[in-house]
Each structure stands twice: as structure tokens, then as C-alpha cells.
Design a protein that fits this description.
mainly alpha; two-stranded parallel sheet; Serine Threonine Protein Phosphatase 5, Tetratricopeptide repeat
């Protein structure tokens, strides 16, 4: 299928940047490393730190890594097989149906890339970085480690300068979570504040570290008991305190236009973004442009790959006035005719002319979608299409949009959830309704776990949140549209078979 070549092309610039940084990012957990793969001799920590940040692109900033494991396997995304297209050996169907195995190529590449990031950050510490450079690297390592805990439940790791001929050691989910908390507290004083004039959202700050700490405390009980998550009152109190500290900086506010957080110039206009991945249009960038091509029909602008869709049950969680559901967006709709957010029904170009599919039928996206589409009249139009990031038509091959890891709405929603879990749901409801008012949605009457998980979906759809949230709310194994109830083993992803060793054992059930 044509898309495969495009995917490989997207990864190549990142691979060359990594090689140029002198740091080995593709760590083999079985320790089959050659001398050419290991940093040696004098190295510039400034260059190495740039490589550490760059290493986040492969696992996070394209739809083939963490995003796939978090979103395609959830109730927010479906990538239907359309005739012979988007089959990819059944990989996409396996995610949505919760039928993956330890041989799944995307599971392997995601773990490989995440451990590559942790290795790169650890390796930098050997080269006499400044205290701030070391703190930034340790933050990035903590961010990647959090995702490894979340997805795989155990974390392989190495110490700086460790003998790489030996298998990596392994931390349990509990040990790794405690490690992250300890690390973030240790580096907090050294990291710059986001209030500094020189601060940029793509550089680790105290506020970014506090968001990650909040996530650790909120998810700690789920990481140690995924089948029946617990929520310690002291941990919830820490979530609330950290949220208040971030708010007290006065740096952040909810964006008047929700989609400004994901615009090509979001580095400048977003009032919410706390930590991002930096993209320079026409220069350095990630695979974010795949989010433009993957949902687009061949006859749209851009001419796309006609794949990624959402499900009608998820779309129906939004009310008609909720601006998060989608709208026309300057520089996008008037240039290519595409709305930001959800696109359903008849599609038009920028001049208002109705588009057609390749058979000459109206290009009208339908809410109805099947995991395997066979009807030739439905193949090209099945599924509502989603554009979370505004299409950067000026630099569509390498867009300016910075990738969003953390934003202020997440801080507020985590605080609201922590309040709900410590018997103060009315205070949490005030926060949620304030967000909903700014998003154009009517106020909710109460805040319960069922209400909260739906609101998390509406606020953070397609932002790599959904699997984590569904597990924390005890809903990950439920049946949903085009998916039957799944076995408890799917609460974790398997360790790829070729990465198992005497320390890194297979997860239960695989």
C-alpha cells in the first residue's frame, strides 16, 4: 500500500538527526550493541541534548508509535480495512479489536524508540553537561519512562557508562513510578520557570515537570493495579497542590479558540501549551504531517491516504454547540476547504464546490463505519474524519505546528478528577464547567466517574490520552463500537519476543 513508503520517508530525517547527535538512540534491550552504536570519545552535551529532544519524535510525534497504542486501540479511533487498502497485515485491526500479539511490529518499534530516548538521556550524563542540561535530559527520560510504565508495566534501564554487553536491568511499575517522582523532585530547582523571558514551551521547565508529577500521582494506583485502580488521598492532595502551583504562575489560561493550541503558529498564540515538541516548517520536523494525510480522501486538499476515522458513538458525545467538535479555521478551511476537528457529511473545496469520490459519487463522510469495509460504494466515505492540528498548507510536508505534550487544560482536569476522587466533586464540577463554558458547551449537573471520562474524551481526543484514562476509570476492557469485551491481559502490551531476556520477562497472558 502506498502509505508505507510515506511512513518510512517521514522517519528518515529524524534518523539522520539522531545519528548526527553522536548518541545511540536505538537501544537493543538484549544488549546486542556494537562499538559503532555507542557514544565514544569527546562529545558536546549541547548537541547531545538536542538529540535527546529529537529522540522524542519517533515514539510520540507521529501516528505510528505511542499514539497508535493509545488511540487506535481505544473508542476514539478506527482505521478500517477498505477493500485491500489499510490492511497492513491486520496490524490496525488488531489494535482496535484488542487482538495484538507479541509479534506486532508497531509494539516492537514503540518500545524500541522509547528505550532509545531513555538511553540517549542517560548517555548524555556521561559528558559533563551543565546542571540545567542534565536536568532537561532527566526530564525527557522521565517522560519516556512514564510511557513505558503506562504501556508495558515494566521498564528496562541502564546507568550512565554501564557495561552494554549485559542485559539492561528492569524496574517494576511501582519502582519506576517512584523513580520518576524522585527524579522530578530532584531536578525541579534546576529547571527554568516558564515565566522566564527566555522560556520556550519546547524546553523542559518546572511547570512541565509538575504536570508530569501530577500524572504520576494520579495514575500511581492504576499502574500498580490496573484491574482495580486505587486513589490514595495523599496522592490526590499532591495533584491538587501541584495544579494550584502551576496556576499561581499566571503564565497559562484556557485558549479562547481551542484549536489555537494546535495551530501552525501554536508556539506563539497558544495560551495553554506547557510542553511541546518543536517543529520548524521547512526545516526540522516530526511526522506530524501524517495527521493531515491519514484522514484525508484522495480528492481533498491535501490529497491524502483515506484511512484514519473516528466512531459515531464517540462523535455523539459532543453537543452541537461544543466548539471542540469542529469549525472553520483561518488558513485551513479557506485554503483547502477542510474544517478543523470532526468532518462529517458532504465535503467541499475552499470555494464551496462539493467534492466527489473517485467513482463520481458525492464525497460525504458517513458516521457508519465497519472494521472491514467491503461495499465499494462505502469504501471511500466510511468514517468521520478528524483533524486535531490545523493543516499548515504553507509547509505541508514539514509543518510548523509544535506537537503538544502538556497543556493547561490537562492541569485543570487532573485537579478536577482529584477533587472528585476525594469526595469534593462539587469543586471539581466548577472547574469542568468553566472549561465547558469556554468551549461553548452547556454546564453539567454533576461530576461522576462516568461523566468525567466522557469529558476527558471531549477535551483530549486524539492527544494520546485515551487508553491511560480508560484504564484509570476501569473501562478499557469494555465492549465498544466494533470491539467486543477484551481479556485482562490487554491491560498491558506484550514485551516483543525478540526483546525478552533474563531480566525482562513477558507480561502475563502473552
Amino acid at each position: 500500500m502506498k502509505i508505507l513508503n510515506k511512513k518510512k520517508w517521514l522517519v528518515l530525517p529524524v534518523a539522520f538527526l539522531i545519528l548526527g547527535s553522536c548518541t545511540k538512540l536505538d537501544e537493543n534491550l538484549n544488549s546486542e550493541l556494537t562499538s559503532s552504536q555507542i557514544s565514544s570519545g569527546a562529545a558536546d552535551p549541547t548537541t547531545l541534548l538536542k538529540g535527546v529532544y529529537t529522540s522524542l519524535r519517533n515514539p510520540f510525534e507521529a501516528p505510528w508509535g505511542v499514539w497508535s497504542l493509545q488511540e487506535v486501540a481505544s473508542d476514539e479511533v478506527i482505521i478500517p480495512t477498505r477493500g485491500g487498502d489499510w490492511d497492513d497485515g491486520g496490524d490496525w485491526r488488531a489494535f482496535h479489536l484488542h487482538k495484538w500479539t507479541s509479534f506486532h511490529s508497531r509494539i516492537y518499534s514503540t518500545l524500541k524508540d522509547l528505550t532509545g530516548t531513555t538511553f540517549a538521556a542517560t548517555d548524555l550524563l556521561r559528558y559533563n553537561p551543565t546542571t540545567q542540561q542534565a536536568a532537561e535530559a532527566r526530564f525527557v527520560r522521565a517522560l519516556a519512562t512514564f510511557s513505558i510504565i503506562d504501556l508495558f508495566g515494566q521498564v528496562p534501564y541502564r546507568e550512565p557508562g554501564e557495561n552494554l554487553t549485559l542485559p539492561a536491568k528492569v524496574r517494576t511499575a511501582k519502582e519506576a513510578t517512584e523513580f520518576i517522582i524522585s527524579e522530578l523532585n530532584a531536578i525541579m530547582a534546576t529547571l527554568p520557570s516558564a515565566t522566564a523571558a527566555s522560556s520556550k514551551p519546547y524546553i523542559a521547565t518546572k511547570e512541565a515537570a509538575k504536570v508530569l508529577l501530577m500524572k504520576c500521582y494520579l495514575n500511581k494506583g492504576a499502574f500498580t493495579n490496573r484491574a482495580a485502580p486505587t486513589f490514595d488521598a495523599a496522592d490526590m492532595a499532591k495533584v491538587i497542590t501541584l495544579a494550584d502551583e502551576i496556576t499561581a504562575t499566571g503564565k497559562y489560561a484556557l485558549a479562547a479558540n481551542y484549536f489555537d493550541n494546535f495551530a501552525p503558529n501554536n508556539e506563539i498564540i497558544s495560551t495553554e501549551n506547557i510542553f511541546t515538541g518543536h517543529n520548524i516548517g521547512g526545516g526540522e520536523g516530526s511526522g506530524l504531517n501524517a495527521f493531515f494525510y491519514a484522514p484525508s480522501h484522495y480528492n481533498m486538499n491535501p490529497g491524502g491516504w483515506n484511512g484514519f476515522s473516528t466512531l459515531s458513538d464517540f462523535y455523539n458525545k459532543f453537543t452541537a454547540t461544543d466548539t471542540r467538535r469542529g469549525m472553520s479555521y483561518p488558513g485551513m478551511t479557506n485554503v483547502g476547504g477542510v474544517k478543523i476537528g470532526f468532518n462529517v457529511g458532504q465535503q467541499y473545496n475552499q470555494n464551496g464546490v462539493a467534492l466527489k469520490d473517485r467513482r463520481g459519487n458525492p464525497l460525504a463522510f458517513t458516521p457508519e463505519v465497519n472494521i472491514i469495509e467491503k461495499d465499494v460504494n462505502h469504501l471511500e466515505v466510511a468514517g468521520i474524519r478528524v483533524y486535531k492540528y490545523a493543516i499548515d498548507y504553507a509547509q505541508i510536508g514539514n509543518p510548523n505546528n509544535d506537537w503538544v505534550y502538556f497543556r493547561y487544560a490537562d492541569v485543570l482536569m487532573m485537579k478536577a478528577e482529584a477533587l472528585m476522587r476525594t469526595t469534593n466533586a462539587p469543586a471539581g464540577l466548577v472547574i469542568v464547567n468553566n472549561i465547558r463554558e469556554i468551549r461553548g458547551a452547556a454546564a453539567l449537573n454533576s461530576l461522576t466517574p462516568d461523566v468525567m471520562i466522557d469529558e476527558l474524551g471531549r477535551e483530549f481526543y486524539w492527544e494520546s490520552h485515551r487508553r491511560t484514562d480508560l484504564i484509570r476509570f476501569g473501562k478499557w476492557l469494555n465492549a465498544w463500537q466494533e470491539k467486543a469485551a477484551s481479556d485482562a491481559k490487554y491491560l498491558l502490551y506484550p514485551i516483543p519476543d525478540n526483546q525478552l531476556n533474563e531480566n525482562l520477562k513477558q507480561n502475563p497472558g502473552y
